[in-house]
């Protein structure tokens, strides 16, 4: 298996990546430099007040600790690069997929239904879905009945009450949640297409470019279709 080049993996996958400026330390002390300093310290020490053996052992122990930490940092950096490349591969598979994200509106396209959902923290005795066009006119109203807690998905075929197919575009979604005599507004979600993926510095802050909504954080995705 060939080694993954983390420098160009994002370009090969067609992903965007934020620029990170790499800074290298120019004051690092290597093992050879440390031994030279130890030798010089022995050569030029005061013969009347020589350093104790414990002092030398303490310096060597400190250097060994620092050297071990540097080795760990190198290992962690290699692991981070490998994880970042793997994340880039996984992120590339999202392009062209559909995801369910929080939104108060959905997008109707030619020949397709508009898929959305309501998130219920508690069971509801009744849910009523209302859909309005860009002018604020009610074009569809639907009863979903009693529902358990969780995501309640539904699809609108794009037709009004008279069975007429409506024009493609953005439509506002509202959910009335009934629990006994109490009525509250439900949190609505809509299904959108993933058009692009952007990885932040160090592979963090994964951002999706979705149709109609622009850029959203990956953490907002409730479901991948």
Task: Report on this structure.
This protein folds into two domains: 29-92; 98-224, Sandwich (Immunoglobulin-like). Helix content is 25%, strand content 34%. It has three helices and 13 strands, in the order αβααββββββββββββ. The strands form two sheets. Strands 1, 2, 4, 7, 10, 11, 12 and 13 form an eight-stranded mixed sheet that branches. Strands 3, 5, 6, 8 and 9 form a five-stranded antiparallel sheet that branches. Strand 5 and strand 6 (138-143) form a beta hairpin. The model is unreliable at 20-24 (pLDDT under 50).
**What sort of overall outline do the alpha carbons produce when their principal axes are compared?**
elongated
Q: Percent of residues in helical segments?
A: 25-40%
CATH topology of the largest domain: Immunoglobulin-like
Tell how many strands the DSSP assignment holds.
Answer: 13
Question: Hey, roughly how much beta strand do the residues contain?
Answer: 25-35%
> Which series of helices and strands comes N to C?
HEHHEEEEEEEEEEEE
SS class: alpha+beta
Radius of gyration in whole Å, from Cα? 30 Å
Mean pLDDT comes to 77
> Helical segment tally?
3
Offer a few descriptive terms.
alpha+beta; 3 helices; 225 residues; 8-stranded mixed sheet; elongated; Immunoglobulin-like; 25% helix
